[in-house]
Design brief:
Blueprint lengths: L3 H14 L4 H10 L5 H13 L5 H15 L1
Length: 70
């Protein structure tokens, strides 16, 4: 359906219900635009702090930081 706003909202709700749901942070970040890299980096940071540690969160946060540096 390409309802990006709805998907971001659903991921946010999932995170509120279960702050350890790493994939919700990662998927929400993927939907956010490049203009919001600080928020994306914050999402990845939250995913990294949630057990179990997630290698994809580190990788994707690195990509977001690299994009921000350009």
């Amino acid at each position: 359906m390409h309802d990006v706003s709805g998907a971001i909202s659903d991921y946010g709700q999932a995170i509120r219900l279960d702050p350890t749901m790493v994939h919700a942070y990662i998927n929400r970040r993927r939907l956010r635009s490049r203009g919001k890299l600080n928020r994306a980096i914050a999402d990845y940071g939250a995913a990294i702090r949630s057990p179990p540690r997630n290698a994809a969160a580190y990788h994707n946060r690195g990509n977001a930081r690299a994009s921000k540096a350009r």
